[in-house]
């Protein structure tokens, strides 16, 4: 899909045409301008030529059908991955990428092994949500799901490839369109951004007034271990990240989610759990335990169920607010940290 020339193609049309055209793409989810029936045949042909709507993608569906991964091929032939997760309660969450690859190089993450290729444009971020909205529109055609909004993407998480705060402006612009009642109309409280701890980004978000959910990839309860797993901790050490989070909470009064991937014999010990308790004992801090998802060639393994239970017991005893994240799509390499392209 390429909307770059949309404005230019429509410059001689009435001023409502642009709004109408965006409505066709971002609300009605047409996949060919021929479906824009209120446009003249000439205009439709021109748009199909200059602003094609086709999204090139390879699609994989998980065994139980609850998650679908799309590898989208962009116009410079680089690829990104995005996943739709269908929850039992009717929510449809899309996990979007914001960069091709990622420069942060976290050792446990498949995207991290790719290095950084480039930032995504606003349209390329939106295209991922458009893709799944088209898919949902085609697969759930009943009138009832239409009226319940069940055939729409209801939640978006910036937890795919890349670090959102290294592409801050485009991510924020995309969020505004996702939230726009005249576009995707996704509630701002259903949009989440996850960062490995880019402090400037946390500060900017706090001042933006935007009520999105903030998640922090923590993964270790002290600098020494975090530095080994996440090289970026040298630049943004734990205490400074947490200070930025506390300022964010002070300003926004919003809760913050901390993500902690349990890796066998690395960060899943009783000592780590106890250290984590010390960090998490704060109002509006919320912990999300994630099972480690296998990454090809990785030196790490997932913690055993027994170990996870013991770890959780320590947290429970100390009354830490936490949940264990349900694992979507690990059989199609579509779970957290498994996004990788070009290999
Ligand atoms: N760059 C951002 C957002 C993308 S990563 C960030 O790091 O927060 C989305 C989440 O998946 C992060 O919490 C990340 O740490 C986690 N993750 C990375 N590799 C993983 C793996 N192998 N198993 C489980 N989660 C992983
Ligand atoms: Fe980048 Fe996030 Fe993966 Fe780290 S965990 S390499 S920041 S995508």
Automatic annotation (TrEMBL):
<dbReference type="InterPro" id="IPR040072">
    <property type="entry name" value="Methyltransferase_A"/>
</dbReference>
<dbReference type="GO" id="GO:0000049">
    <property type="term" value="F:tRNA binding"/>
</dbReference>
<keyword id="KW-0808">Transferase</keyword>
<keyword id="KW-0489">Methyltransferase</keyword>
<comment type="function">
    <text>Specifically methylates position 2 of adenine 2503 in 23S rRNA and position 2 of adenine 37 in tRNAs.</text>
</comment>
<dbReference type="InterPro" id="IPR007197">
    <property type="entry name" value="rSAM"/>
</dbReference>
<dbReference type="GO" id="GO:0070475">
    <property type="term" value="P:rRNA base methylation"/>
</dbReference>
<keyword id="KW-0408">Iron</keyword>
<dbReference type="GO" id="GO:0019843">
    <property type="term" value="F:rRNA binding"/>
</dbReference>
<dbReference type="InterPro" id="IPR058240">
    <property type="entry name" value="rSAM_sf"/>
</dbReference>
<keyword id="KW-0479">Metal-binding</keyword>
<keyword id="KW-0004">4Fe-4S</keyword>
<dbReference type="GO" id="GO:0051539">
    <property type="term" value="F:4 iron, 4 sulfur cluster binding"/>
</dbReference>
<keyword id="KW-0819">tRNA processing</keyword>
<feature type="domain" description="Radical SAM core">
    <location>
        <begin position="88"/>
        <end position="330"/>
    </location>
</feature>
<feature type="binding site">
    <location>
        <position position="106"/>
    </location>
    <ligand>
        <name>[4Fe-4S] cluster</name>
    </ligand>
</feature>
<dbReference type="GO" id="GO:0046872">
    <property type="term" value="F:metal ion binding"/>
</dbReference>
<keyword id="KW-0963">Cytoplasm</keyword>
<dbReference type="InterPro" id="IPR004383">
    <property type="entry name" value="rRNA_lsu_MTrfase_RlmN/Cfr"/>
</dbReference>
<feature type="binding site">
    <location>
        <begin position="162"/>
        <end position="163"/>
    </location>
    <ligand>
        <name>S-adenosyl-L-methionine</name>
    </ligand>
</feature>
<dbReference type="GO" id="GO:0030488">
    <property type="term" value="P:tRNA methylation"/>
</dbReference>
<keyword id="KW-1015">Disulfide bond</keyword>
<dbReference type="GO" id="GO:0070040">
    <property type="term" value="F:rRNA (adenine(2503)-C2-)-methyltransferase activity"/>
</dbReference>
<keyword id="KW-0411">Iron-sulfur</keyword>
<feature type="binding site">
    <location>
        <position position="102"/>
    </location>
    <ligand>
        <name>[4Fe-4S] cluster</name>
    </ligand>
</feature>
<feature type="binding site">
    <location>
        <position position="109"/>
    </location>
    <ligand>
        <name>[4Fe-4S] cluster</name>
    </ligand>
</feature>
<keyword id="KW-0698">rRNA processing</keyword>
<comment type="similarity">
    <text>Belongs to the radical SAM superfamily. RlmN family.</text>
</comment>
<dbReference type="InterPro" id="IPR013785">
    <property type="entry name" value="Aldolase_TIM"/>
</dbReference>
<feature type="binding site">
    <location>
        <position position="194"/>
    </location>
    <ligand>
        <name>S-adenosyl-L-methionine</name>
    </ligand>
</feature>
<keyword id="KW-0949">S-adenosyl-L-methionine</keyword>
<dbReference type="GO" id="GO:0005737">
    <property type="term" value="C:cytoplasm"/>
</dbReference>
<feature type="active site" description="Proton acceptor">
    <location>
        <position position="81"/>
    </location>
</feature>
<protein>
    <recommendedName>
        <fullName>Probable dual-specificity RNA methyltransferase RlmN</fullName>
        <ecNumber>2.1.1.192</ecNumber>
    </recommendedName>
</protein>
<dbReference type="InterPro" id="IPR027492">
    <property type="entry name" value="RNA_MTrfase_RlmN"/>
</dbReference>
<feature type="binding site">
    <location>
        <begin position="217"/>
        <end position="219"/>
    </location>
    <ligand>
        <name>S-adenosyl-L-methionine</name>
    </ligand>
</feature>
<dbReference type="GO" id="GO:0002935">
    <property type="term" value="F:tRNA (adenine(37)-C2)-methyltransferase activity"/>
</dbReference>
<feature type="binding site">
    <location>
        <position position="293"/>
    </location>
    <ligand>
        <name>S-adenosyl-L-methionine</name>
    </ligand>
</feature>
<feature type="active site" description="S-methylcysteine intermediate">
    <location>
        <position position="336"/>
    </location>
</feature>
<dbReference type="Pfam" id="PF04055">
    <property type="entry name" value="Radical_SAM"/>
</dbReference>
């Amino acid at each position: 899909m390429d909307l770059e020339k949309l404005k230019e193609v429509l410059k001689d049309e009435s001023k409502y045409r642009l709004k109408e055209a965006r409505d066709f793409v971002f609300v009605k989810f047409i996949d060919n301008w021929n479906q824009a029936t209120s446009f003249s045949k000439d205009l439709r042909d021109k748009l199909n030529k200059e602003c094609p709507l086709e999204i090139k993608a390879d699609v994989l569906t998980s065994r139980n059908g609850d998650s679908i991964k799309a590898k989208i091929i962009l116009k410079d032939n680089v690829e990104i991955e995005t996943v739709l997760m269908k929850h039992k309660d009717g929510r449809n969450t899309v996990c979007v990428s914001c960069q091709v690859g990622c420069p942060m190089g976290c050792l446990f993450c498949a995207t991290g092994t790719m290095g950084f290729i480039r930032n995504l444009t606003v349209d390329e971020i939106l295209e991922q949500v458009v893709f799944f909205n088209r898919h949902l529109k085609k697969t759930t055609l009943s009138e009832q799901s239409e009226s319940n909004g069940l055939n729409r993407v209801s939640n978006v998480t910036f937890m795919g490839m890349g670090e959102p705060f290294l592409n801050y402006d485009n991510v924020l612009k995309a969020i505004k369109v996702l939230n726009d009642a005249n576009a995707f109309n996704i509630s701002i409280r259903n949009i989440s951004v996850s960062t490995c701890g880019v402090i400037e980004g946390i500060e900017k978000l706090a001042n933006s007034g935007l009520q999105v959910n903030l998640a922090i990839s923590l993964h270790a309860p002290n600098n020494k271990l975090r530095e080994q797993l996440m090289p970026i901790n040298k630049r943004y050490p734990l205490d400074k990240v947490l200070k930025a989070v506390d300022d964010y909470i002070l300003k926004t009064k919003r809760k913050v989610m901390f993500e902690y991937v349990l890796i066998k014999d690395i960060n899943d010990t009783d000592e780590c759990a106890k250290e984590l308790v010390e960090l998490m004992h704060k109002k509006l801090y919320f912990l999300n335990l994630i099972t480690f998802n296998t990454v090809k060639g990785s030196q790490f393994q997932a913690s055993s169920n027994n170990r996870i239970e013991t770890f959780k017991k320590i947290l429970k005893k100390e009354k830490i607010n936490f949940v264990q994240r349900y694992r979507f799509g690990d059989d199609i390499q579509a779970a957290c940290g498994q996004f990788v392209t070009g290999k």
